[in-house]
Amino acid sequence: MYSEIASNKRKSILLASLFIAVIILLGWIFDQVYVGGKSYTGIIIAIFLSFGLTAISYFQGDKIALLTTGAKLLEHDENQRVYHLVENLCIASGTPIPKIYLIEDPAINAFATGRKPEIASIALTRGAIEKLTDNELEGVIAHELSHIKNYDIRFMMLVAVMVGSISILANILLRSGGLTRGKGGNDREGGSQLFAILMIVGIVLAILSPLIAELIKLAISRRREFLADASGALLTRYPEGLARALEKISAEAKPMRTASSATAHLFIASPFSAKSFSKLFSTHPPVEERIKKLRTMGA
Fold it and tell me: Which positions are catalytic residues (predicted)?
């Protein structure tokens, strides 16, 4: 557990650095291809964009996630059952008690957010609270507490924002080509081969980098879910509880009204209809595979 936490912290720094480097590279290619290397406008925009969005995701990502899903703070007296389940699991895991939010949605789902355990939050849908038994809801809460304790939330928020940054800059690079090309490489003397190579590289990178970055994000998200399932099952000592909760989620297959691709990776199960996305572009591993692994743990 502790090695996983340390690994997540290291990977957060490494991943943020890698994505910032890719964004700056896109900015440099923009300058070379479209303004002939005579300006550093693209690099300056890329630096401000990458560092600005990284800072926003780090300090405000949890508030944005809660706001976009319409989550409202759940007071202790409104639902003592939920509070007692959360408090008991926090005592068992040695983690601070997070704020608890309610999402008014009949679908069964939940997510955790917050860059560190001391200021974390858990959001549960109305469907999860009303349709799950205590053992099942405890399994779901333990899964989310594991995300918090493992620093998965910080890691995945950084991934999501960096992917978005690359997509935005790549889109700018492609859309600006037809407007600014005449100001750059075409009127330069010599270097035509270098210009052609840079232009091809720029176009290929602009087209493929958002797709590659998105696939990396999805692969990381799926791995985090398996780890949180295992950590949550160890916390409750009852893998069957989470397995049954996932079965109910799968059987219901009801998309959330507030579902968003920007926050989909945070939820315990995909908030979209199971038929709407291929496995390649799913933010979560197949529910059947997760259930099988959980029941193997309990065997």
Answer: 144
pLDDT tens-digit map of 63-78: 888 998 999 999 999 9
DSSP state of 228: H
Residue 288 falls in the annotated catalytic set: no
Residue 130 labelled as part of a binding site:
no
Q: Are 107 and 252 in contact (CB under 8 A)?
A: yes
Number of folded domains that form the chain: 2
How far apart, in whole angstroms, are the C-alpha atoms of residue 6 and residue 22? Answer: 25
Beta-bridged to residue 101, according to DSSP, are 73, 123
Distance CA 233, CA 241 (A): 8
**Residue found by looking up tokens 């408090």 in the block:** 87
> Which of 171, 191, 218 is the last residue in one of the domains?
218
Cα–Cα distance measured from residue 30 to residue 25, given in angstroms and rounded to the nearest whole number: 9
pTM of the complete model: 0.76
Nearest to 291 by CA among 183, 143, 107, 162: 143
